[in-house]
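User: Can you predict the 3D structure for this chain?
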Amino acid sequence: MAQRHHHHHPESSTVTARRPELSQHFLRDRRLARALVGGMRLPRGSLVLEVGPGRGIITEALADAGFRVIAVEKDVRLFRSLRARFIGRTNVECHHADFLSFRAPARPHAVVSSVPYGITSAVVRRVLESAATDALLIVQREAAWKFAGHPSETLFSLLHKPWYQITIARTLRRSDFAPPPSVESALLRVHRRARPLVAPAEAADYRAFVRDCFGAPTMRAALGGRFTWRQIARLSRDLRFSRDARPSRLTFPQWLALFRFFEHICHEHRRARWPDTGM
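Assistant: Here is the predicted structure, written as structure tokens:
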């Protein structure tokens, strides 16, 4: 019960006490940490940026697995404890910094984090904008569903899936953490596609198409201003969706096929307006 009195006096806490205002919940089981790290399927020696390592249980598993670890910890007391613990490990470097303003490596790397729930969206967006090729993020279960588009696609998932595979690797129990959080958690896996499904030149068009269509109440309304009724009927038949379905009911492959058809139509219109003169 004494921990509650630290809410307004975090500096009076012990070195490894959690910061309630940072919504920190630490993994407690070394075997689970090793299992999570083992599931990363990255070559030994890969560069891994760990965000908010806390007490270092995942840091230890990463170091033992032979990764080069850059650990970024915002809490100065946890940072000091972490630095002292890994001072003899040549493959671990610790930084006292806020990840959201920390300069991430410009070369390909992986990101691992038990993300403080209050900054989940900011961390995920920063990872997707960085040079990271892989990420393993422990986040609140509902947030994982949103990012992965599970059980149905979200605007976020659709806007990122042409460039990333985003999946839920496993769910975690509250008892896996100390202290146990009041919400359920899940392990979100993010992998940058070696070959994007939408070309860079089409990226802006794809995002605009999805944003505009996703806000409509039905697919009939979403596609009405872009295609003829005959084209919509054919698309709904060929791609197997109801014209009365909400946009979130369509899968990512269905959205990708709709965009491909939209681009084809636009291309045909451009050719009709400016026919090839053979020059």
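The longest strand covers residues 132-140. The mean pLDDT is 88.
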